[in-house]
Amino acid sequence: MPLVRVRDVSQVFANGVQALGGVSLDIGVGEFLSVLGPSGCGKSTLLRLLAGLAEPTAGTIDWPQGRPDLGFVFQEPTLMPWTTALGNVALPLKLRGQARSEREARAAEALAGVGLAGFEKSFPRELSGGMKMRVSIARALVTEPKLLLMDEPFAALDEITRRKLNTDLLALWERTRFTAVFVTHSVFESVFLSQRIAVMSARPGRVRSELAISAPYPRTETFGTSADYAALCRLASAQLSDAMAA
Amino acid sequence: MSARFIAPVLMGIFMLVLWEGLVRAMAIPPYILPGPILVAKTLVSDWGTLWPALVVTLTITLQALLAAVLVGGALALLFSLSRWIELSLFPYAIILQVTPIVAIAPLIIAWVDDVDVSLLICAWLVAFFPILSNTVLGLRSVDRNLLDLFELYGASRWRTLLELRLPAALPYFLGGLRISGGLALIGAVVAEFVAGSGGRASGLAYRILESGYQLKIPRMFAALVLISAAGIAIYLLLSLISHLLLRRWHESALGEER
User: Fold this and answer.
1) What is the pLDDT of residues A68-94, one digit of tens each?
2) Across the interface, do A96 and B154 touch by the CB < 8 Å criterion?
3) Does the keyword tRNA processing apply (chain A) (predicted)?
4) Cβ contact (<8 Å) for A72 and B148?
5) Residue B173 falls in which region: left (phi positive, over 0), alpha (psi -120 to 50) or beta
């Protein structure tokens, strides 16, 4: 039984732009799925629909096991500048009414989980871009969600930081096996991270093809430089070209 | 001491010396233009008259500023909560703002029996708009993604206002406050001038008028100096408050760091 069943979902914005044109997709429990597509193919819209931040114009989104707790990581770190890393990470717990001592302990734990122990009292402006993104991930994971939605979270980072974060994200996922939906426009990133890639066509977006990546975890630099990896990237790239041409 | 302090201080001293020198060299009588030394002496000798007048003007200014913060802030909150209220009221706030206070001050003074209250209303009218418009802008400049995040975690409207919109609007509000501080003083002085020509006020502007009638020009200058000093003090105080509130996180307070 999948975690979520998306059927023929379309989304038309008030200004008449059709972002999604009949998306169908199943996402399994504990799966790491990447949604790969060109800019403006409605990937972000799909995430917002999954998060319940918008309602689809047509089609259905079913949660056979009930709506799970979810975390959301935006393209930008999206931190509140007036509070510390700890305050930012503790926000979801605060909004749920958890007591201060408890939420701060859990937030500190989540920060340590993303490798930021010792930065609890830092303000966002004192952190680098990669560190801010780590805080953002810690905030999404602090509620221990069953589902983590990520909207091109590393797109604005440099290559070296991005690689490090990819590896660390996989380590976090392997530890708790939340369901991960990772939106990206990078072929390399999607192949490196996921078990399955859903390739989307340009606007109006729909899922054109799916590609299973069966390489075992943990995936390291060895996988990232292997011939298998290169072949899979070529395959995914070809599917993306097809989807864009369609 | 950096050039930031030395340059303007040297410039000021130079201008004062030039002023005093010209007054002496051309033997300009004090009832046309008193030199800075005479103004300083008058400031000391007439302190007994000027100080109470300064207190009166400052009291009105600060009361008006406080009222501007309360009413401007409350209106901004109301506007951010209801688009309809904003659409219906904002144009009138602008009309109040663009109407010259000199033109309506006589009406207000005629309508309101208590002179102090009428002065307060005039100063408030000039001061409240920057706070209102800046705070509205700030409340609306919240990161869309953060709003989504709050929605995602089921935050109520009230909670979102308290934890997200208010802190995000704080730098804008403080910017408005600094402008309003100066405007409140100007509003109070203008209203005093209007009221003073009817002989019904006791603030610094009234002292200026009175000195003008009596040709006590040095005292007039001394009163002017006091008004400027008060304006500068208000600005510095509000800047300090703003700095203290923002220094840990806002870009505007970080200038010297990099």
Assistant:
1) 999 999 999 999 999 999 999 999 999
2) yes
3) no
4) yes
5) alpha
